[in-house]
Amino acid sequence: MARKKGGLAARRTSVREYRDVCWVSAEGTTERDYLGMAAFKGAPVSVRFPKNTHPNRHNPAAVLKRFEKALRENDFRAGDEAWLVVDVDEWSEAELAELLAWEASDARHHLAVSNPKFELFLVMHFEKGNGCTTPEKVDAVLKKHWPRYAKRVSPTQFSTKQVMEAVANAKAKRAGCKAALPAPGMTDAHLLVERLLG
Question: Which residues contact 79 (CB under 8 A, 6 or more apart)?
Fold first, then answer.
């Protein structure tokens, strides 16, 4: 340890480096559980979930309004990112257009839309999910691979290798669709996951 004149030890102070944050507005516990898995522990960014940003069964515009309010109330810094994780559900492209405009308004804004729902990305940890174009089909295939799935994901459910396989499956399917929103049976959840994997 370095010493100052007079024999006193110089005190070392540790300054914790600020990590950029991905502020995520996610619909349910499945998404939050998944993004909190051990596979993402070494991520170059941290994930935070503002509270109450997804009102039950409200349209995308209501979700966006609450998320923007949460970002204003939190410390949304220059290097941070805002991610809206939503399912297409029964919303039309016209209803989702406001989300696309929000994404285009700032390079820090991002969408991770799943069509029909986020669980499709879970299916992609096991297979490509061909034919998973409705919520019922997604559920049936997921239950085939994961019979005990009940809307919760444990911290060790998927390894980094499995997560990377899901990303590859999602990217391969999405490559065939140039539309801003994923077609039925496709998801953009891999975009956020890739960001967390670094």
Answer: 20
Q: Is residue 16 scored above 80 in pLDDT? A: no
Smallest Cα–Cα separation from 117: which of 81, 141, 148? 141
Distance CA 37, CA 109 (A): 23
Residue 7, H or E segment: none
pLDDT tens digit string along 154-176? 999 999 999 999 999 999 999 98
Q: Which has the closest alpha carbon to 155: 22, 71, 36, 7?
A: 36
**C-alpha span between 97 and 83 (Å, rounded):** 16
**Distance separating alpha carbons of residues 56 and 28, to the nearest angstrom:** 10
CA distance 27 to 31: 7
Residue 3 has pLDDT above 60, yes or no: no
CA 189 – CA 20 distance, rounded (Å): 20
- What amino acid is encoded at 198 in this protein? G
| Cα–Cα distance for residue pair 109/103, rounded to 1 Å | 5
Contact (Cβ atoms closer than 8 angstroms) between residue 124 and residue 166: yes
Answer whether 74's CB lies under 8 Å from 63's CB: no
For tokens 């953009």, name the residue. 188
